[in-house]
Amino acid sequence: MVGALHLALAVVLVSDRGPTPETARRLAKQLSVAPRTVERWRQWWREGFPATGLWQAMCARFMPPLDLACVPTALLSRFTGASNEAMRGLLMFLIPLTGSAAITLSEGR
Fold first, then answer.
1. pTM for this one?
2. If I label 39, which of 24, 47, 71, 83 is the partner at 20 to 30 A Cα–Cα?
3. CA distance 89 to 109
4. Peptide bond into 72 cis (omega under 30)
5. What one-character DSSP code corresponds to residue 6?
6. Buried b (16+ CB within 10 A) or exposed e, 19-41
7. The dihedral of CA 44, 48, 50, 53: what is its sign?
8. How far is the C-alpha of 68 from the C-alpha of 62, rounded, in Å?
9. DSSP state string for 11-23
10. Whole-Å CA distances, 85 to 15, 23, 33, 88
11. Contacts for 5-11 with beta carbons within 8 Å, 24 or more apart?
């Protein structure tokens, strides 16, 4: 479970970072994934996420509307609290996309 949570955090955090090939290579190396994987994550946020039932059902709740060219950062910015609380809120928001039941996140020690 912890590994899946770390992967979810990594996907969210790197998905809209700089578009340069060098940035993608560096992120891929840090995460031990292929640069194409980072690009697929970025593409999913730009194209796949807006087409999900979750986003279609919930997008009107975000006013003003999000700039979808800037997701997931633009989406993360709509969740309040300290950075860890905002990230927790975003991950909880995304849970329906996993097909999993709701989970409880607690502070790590």
1. 0.73
2. 83
3. 19
4. yes
5. H
6. eeeeebebbbeebebebebbeeb
7. negative
8. 12
9. HHHHTTS---HHH
10. 19, 27, 27, 5
11. 5/91, 5/105, 8/91, 8/94, 9/87, 9/91, 11/41
Whether the predicted pLDDT of 1 surpasses 70: no
Length of the chain: 109
- The predicted-structure confidence for 46-97, as pLDDT tens digits, reads as follows 899 999 999 999 999 999 999 988 888 889 999 999 888 888 899 899 989 8
Q: Pull the structure tokens for residue 104.
A: 């409880």
- Nearest-CA neighbor of 9 among 74, 90, 108? 90
Place of tokens 């891929």: 28
Mean predicted confidence (pLDDT) in 13-19: 59
